[in-house]
Amino acid sequence: MARPRKRRIVCKLPNIKVYGPLDGNIHDEPIILSVEEYEVIRLIDLEGLEQEQCAERMGVARSTVQRMYTEAKQKVADSLVNGKILRIEGGDYILCEEDNNRCISCNRGRHRHRRGKMG
């Protein structure tokens, strides 16, 4: 029997969930970027975290973050270079807990997570 998959902690869902070419030249199926892959890109590229810090925030191993980050970058590159629609949807995640728009554990706005309450 396979080991159950560990749900990843995500701070918040993206406001915009579909990206793509504006010229109307859409022939391919959309590329699906999971919510967790979006969160990895947000934490590493936007917030400037190292993979270990990102893994701690998301409650997974660094190797898991490395794999998700590699796959996410490939999907984003495919969308940009080949003019494909990119949709952010699905995955196996939980949202962090908030109190007055702040994640409870770190008190630094909406970008931190409570550890230990995963389900």
Automatic annotation (TrEMBL):
GO MF annotations in UniProt: DNA binding
Family: Belongs to the UPF0251 family.
Presence of keyword Translocase: no
Keywords: DNA-binding
Gene3D superfamilies given in the database record: Winged helix-like DNA-binding domain superfamily/Winged helix DNA-binding domain (1.10.10.10)
Protein name: UPF0251 protein EDD65_10793
Presence of the UniProt keyword DNA-binding in the record: yes
Transmembrane segments: none
